[in-house]
Amino acid sequence: MIGSPLPRLDGTAKVTGTARYAFEHRVADPAYAYPLQATVARGHITAINTSAAQAVDGVLAVITHENAPHLASTEDAELAVLQSTEIAFRGQVIGAVVADTSETARHAAGLVEVSYDPSPHDAVFTPDRDDLYTPDTVNPSFPTDTSQGDVESALKQSPVVVDHVYTTPMTHNNPLEPHTTVACWHDDQLTLYDSTQGVHSTRQSLAKALGLAPERIRVIAPHVGGGFGSKGQAHAHLVLAAMAAQAMPGRAVKLALTRQQMFSLVGYRTPTVQHVRLGAGPDGRLTAISMDVVEQTSRIKEFAEQTAIPARHMYAAPNRRTTHRLAALDVPVPSWMRAPGECPGMFGPEVAMDELANACGMDPVDLRVLNEPDVDPESGKPFSSRNLVACLREGAARFGWADREHAPRTRREHGWWVGTGVAASTYPVHVKPGSSATVRFQPDGRYRIEIGATDIGTGTWTALTQIAADALSVRVDAIDLRIGDTDLPPATVAGGSSGINSWGSAVVDAARAFRDKFGTGPNPGDEAQGTTPGNSAGERFAMRAFGAQFAEVRVHAATGEIRVPRLLGVFAVGRIINPRTARSQFLGGMTMGMSMALHEQSVLDERFGHVVNHDLAEYHIAANADVAGIEAHWVDETDPHVNPLGTKGIGEIGIVGTAAAIANAAHHATGIRVRDLPLTADKFLADARR
Amino acid sequence: MDAEITLHVDGTARHVTVDARTTLLDALRERLGVMAPKKGCDHGQCGSCTVLLNDRRVITCLVLAVAHDGARIVTAEGLAQDDHLHPVQQAFIDHDGFQCGYCTPGQICSAVGMLKEAEAGWPSAVSDLAAAEVRLSPAEIRERMSGNLCRCGAYAGIVAAIQQAAR
Known about the structure:
The complex is a heterodimer.
Chain A: H1 11-15, E1 31-37, E2 43-49, H2 51-54, E3 59-63, E4 86-87, E5 93-99, H3 102-109, E6 113-118, E7 137-138, E8 142-143, E9 146-148, H4 151-157, E10 160-168, E11 180-186, E12 189-194, H5 199-210, E13 217-220, H6 236-246, E14 253-256, H7 259-265, E15 272-280, E16 286-298, E17 319-329, H8 342-345, H9 347-360, H10 364-370, H11 388-399, E18 412-413, E19 416-428, E20 436-441, E21 447-450, H12 460-472, E22 479-482, H13 499-518, E23 527-531, H14 537-540, E24 544-556, E25 562-572, H15 579-598, E26 604-605, E27 610-611, E28 629-634, H16 658-670, H17 681-689
Parallel strand pairs in A: 1-14, 12-13, 16-17, 21-22, 25-28
Antiparallel strand pairs in A: 1-5, 2-4, 2-6, 3-5, 7-8, 9-17, 10-15, 11-12, 11-14, 15-16, 18-19, 19-24, 20-21, 20-23, 24-25, 26-27
Helix pairs in contact in A: 9-16, 12-13, 15-16
Chain B: E1 2-9, E2 12-19, H1 24-31, E3 50-53, E4 56-59, E5 72-74, H2 76-79, H3 87-94, H4 104-119, H5 138-144, H6 155-166
Parallel strand pairs in B: 1-5
Antiparallel strand pairs in B: 1-2, 3-4, 3-5
Helix pairs in contact in B: 3-6
Pfam family, one (chain B): Fer2
InterPro entries (chain B): 2Fe-2S-bd, 2Fe-2S-bd_dom_sf, 2Fe-2S_ferredoxin-like_sf, 2Fe-2S_ferredoxin-type, 2Fe2S_fd_BS, Aldehyde_Oxdr_Iron-Sulfur, Beta-grasp_dom_sf
Protein name (chain B): Xanthine dehydrogenase YagT iron-sulfur-binding subunit
């Protein structure tokens, strides 16, 4: 069962459109809430006139700071909704109109008159600000700065030095399903159908804000239309929906953010400025690795993306340094976006490695193999498994790397410069403690598996069923899996590629307990529990997944248009539960990485503090025509240390390194080194004019 | 201002009162409980709400319901008949042409409409205009399906699925 390419068990529901996402759960006679948002970036509300809105036929309530319930906790400033007149960023929630229909709610929202006393705001992100600060830790709890040896002396003495600044822009997660909630208060019980990556974590956050016992809140999410981190934590609209429902006891209230609202309210990836310095001998052997990162956070709530983390683990060098500095601005709150840290943090260093290969006259695959460390450079611990070299070699063979011309700007076909590039990928192995699972034998002869996990498109329904069937030694159709509900045993959030590692281990534990207790001939009603076991191997080993990405790029000589006809990734990620859904995870990550390379950039208007390209016509993501040849492979890897299943997590590594591989290929094609994402046509033309 | 209209949805006549501002998408989802068409952007930019409206693929968030009294609508739910999936739907499962599934009903309706357009000889921006008929190469499929965004990045599976269904 484990390792078989079982088609998705929720496939029929999804292709017929009958899988229920949050907003689609049937509730009788719902009301609709439409959020009001601040139109200044900083200041205070001096007056808010709701009379015209309230006069509209069908309007049930207008909620503002003047009549909103008092929250029990405002510790999380992002969730401290409607608790004061203060505005901390443009687009902040300042109220909601609740009405019988969505059309009425939205119309009436436009009639609410808000007066502000604006304060000067600051939304200018630059790396040379004089007020950058050092966060205590970076997400979630890594040291902010690290240092080994003497980087400055080593760089001075290195025969070859690469010293450049690389940047990645502000980007937005943009799952296709917007953030939506259906909330209903009934007999002092709050039920939420929510689009979330974690039902229990969502409940916990809301319980704290509202001052409720968690048992009084139920969160249900059987299907989630993507999240990519933006549904990993509760955001302001969730509190707003709960408040709106509180104003309508017994009546369900539906709240859907618009695509435009998502650009202010559900997190995003900070822009990053990465000063990367590599020192090496003429043979390419690294003597020094230095990475200094500047990024932004919001003034009201810190999020410090761990962008320099991968540089701590990738390559051997005796002298090393990493730092993170933040600019606190009057901007929306940044948060997790697919592979926080690793995704942006493998752009600068992996392009720098390509530059080093050029400087040394070396093949970039050989350069990486040469600098492969014996142990984790950061901790000195051995890796539980590390197969980057195998990924590079297999990828090179599959891609046809050996035929590559060494020199850039040598191949031109029908007006297009053609080149190829490579970059490495890595992602840490996370197993989160705190998940439980129940196995119960049913009268129908099937085994009910219960765990409050979520399927955000990753294939949880299918993979956990396979894991349970394997652990109980039964067929998959003898498993009746239930997920996505806080009435089920608690489970950790679907984030950090930790889902299967954590939930799967709990299911295996429960299945073993069940068989120990009841053997193979159980009676209906027999049940056993299991939890995600602790793992002390992390004290002895560094645990990471690795990969290698290869890209072919064409850049039009006259227009600068850039295309990616081929992408190929090879990954070493431990055991694969389901090759069919795993391949989709890798391809999906690589496609999002290509999207990052070619298109994605949220343009913040510093004068007003908002993202101007706040929809899918102007914030471009990869479309079907952007993706041509794309392949994902993996090497066999057995790692007994990571967890009982031997899995390392696969949801994020596919996006890591893709943009660097494409940028490196673009350089090979054109001879033009673009160090600032995205790789838009103007950057190739501007350089050509110089 | 309200209006009473009739929509023939997946083979059933449905009478519904709609606000003049109600989009066809909201009429289907919020008034009739037909949830197969999805709301991804509400601006005609993502394609998640695609249905077949009088046999042609249409983005329902850009259409006002009141202007389509009497229209025949087929959603992804209606493409499956008597528990038999439409060949395009089966092909999407076979090739894992989705992950989260949110864009999927729109992708599938769009694919069904697109296959008819190609069969009728309608060219796309990448078609060979000298050719007698449209040959559905991967490049043709990608071009014709680029109005349907997939954030999970299942495009490779989507193209393979449509190639299978087109055979």
